[in-house]
Amino acid sequence: MKHQEAVVPEEPDVAAESGAAAEPDDVRASLGRRRRILIWVVVGAVALTGAGVVLATTIRSPAQVAADAAPPPASVLADRVERRVLTSSVVVRGTVAAEQVLTVSPGAGAAGAGTGGKPVVTRVNKQPGAAVQAGEVLVEVSGRPVFALAGALPVYRDLKPGATGKDVGQLQEGLKALGHPTGKDPAGTYGAGTKAAVTALYAALGYTPRPADPGDAEKLQAAEDAADTAQRGVTTAKNALAKAKAGGGSDTSEAQQQLVFAQQDLAKATTRLETARASAGPMVPADELVFVKGFPARVDAVKAGVGEPVPDGLLTLSAGAPVIRASLPAHQKDLVKAGMKVEVLSESTGLTATATVASVATAPTPASAGAPSGGGSGAGAGAGSGDGAPGAGQDPGGYALTVTPDQALDARLSGQGVRLTVTAASSGEPVLVVPLSAVSAGADGRTTVTVLGKDPAAADARRRVEVRAGMSADGMVQVEPVAGGALADGDRVLVAQAKP
């Protein structure tokens, strides 16, 4: 039996038969199906990739789990050995101010020279901001001058003929500087030469000096009269004794005794006359004189005008070379000593200067300190009193620090706040230094540092070097190798190691 092949009828070739292209709608439908298939394939690939990532992060091998649970390696903190000058510094804030600030308060002495009424300002010669030179009249009170002379001691009493002391010597120096010599008077003794100089000074200022005692003239006249009377008594006693001897009298003892008494009376009268003459003459009242440390000085303030009563602190003067005043807290007070070097910096202007510590107070500054101290209003208080600048920059309870610039400060720094860096200690020359935490002390008392190898984590490459520690500052300490140890600039030393 024969197999018959199935015959599939062929589809007619429409294109061939018609000779025309396929319809456009069919082509577009075919392309759309292909795009949808491609999109589904891409979405599936992305989904499979994401699933793989999630599985990779959540499924770990036992080795990975053990590695993650192991402690981290120990971290090493190291620093380098340096060779430099090591300095220990104290930094504080300060204020540039005049070396001396004085308040001028003329009082009862000036009024007493007039009618005894309340002192009144009768002329103002120097307005605020004006410069003051030695021998110039600052202000006139009740017709009397108030003038300035050079001197470091404050005025605390009237300077009268016969007085002695350092303040008298200061007056004499001031008079000489203005061209008024004090003759043969010893330094510090108000004698005849100083009287003449004082009289000349007042005459140059256009005033008449006040007498030391309004009754001096009467007292002096009385002393002169007493001396003349005593001199006549001696003359009379001598004549009586001569007549007794010439008359041939055998008893002249009475006449001789009268002469002795008369001579004693003359000696006493002469002493009183010398005392009266020494104490009589012109004086310099405390209300009329201001001693300042240097010229030119400057008037900072005037509190009253002509015709007004004199208030406390009529004038404020600043004098002397500028200084810098600051305040040290208690824990730094013992670190700073007179003579230490200071670096001065004005952050506002960028100006710098060098200075030297002049003084450190031994007692803390009271909370009320800082304002210029006022002069008294009595004859003994003086026209100018108070020494020192205002306490700007001084904190209550701190220790007053005074710094003297090595050279004249820039005028722009006057009254400005500055930063002071005091060199409390210095190695003087470059030394090896390491951080304080790099030095360790063993139970045997030896001090060592640990020098690291190229690989800081390699414990077998480390070596201990015994050192002798020196001064420390700013977290660093001076070290010197001992016992043959080797330590050089640039070596890396162990500062700390964090244990796992």
Tell me what you see in this structure:
The chain is an alpha+beta fold. The protein contains 9 helices and 23 strands. A 6-stranded antiparallel beta sheet has the order 2-18-22-21-20-19, with no helix packed on it. It has a 6-stranded antiparallel beta barrel with strand order 3-12-16-14-13-17. Strands 6-10-11-4-15 form a 5-stranded antiparallel beta sheet, with no helix packed on it. A hairpin with a 2-residue loop joins strand 7 and strand 8. Helix 7 runs antiparallel to helix 8. The longest helix is centred in the first third of the chain and has 35 residues. The N terminus is likely disordered.
Layout of strands and helices, then pairs:
Layout: H1 14-18, H2 24-58, H3 62-69, E1 75-80, E2 82-84, E3 87-97, E4 100-104, H4 108-112, E5 121-124, E6 131-132, E7 137-141, E8 144-150, H5 166-177, H6 192-205, H7 216-246, H8 253-279, E9 289-292, E10 297-302, E11 315-319, E12 323-328, H9 330-333, E13 341-345, E14 352-360, E15 384-385, E16 399-405, E17 417-426, E18 431-435, E19 440-441, E20 447-451, E21 463-473, E22 476-481, E23 492-498
Parallel strand pairs: 8-9
Antiparallel strand pairs: 1-23, 2-18, 3-12, 3-17, 4-11, 4-15, 5-7, 6-10, 7-8, 10-11, 12-16, 13-14, 13-17, 14-16, 18-22, 19-20, 20-21, 21-22
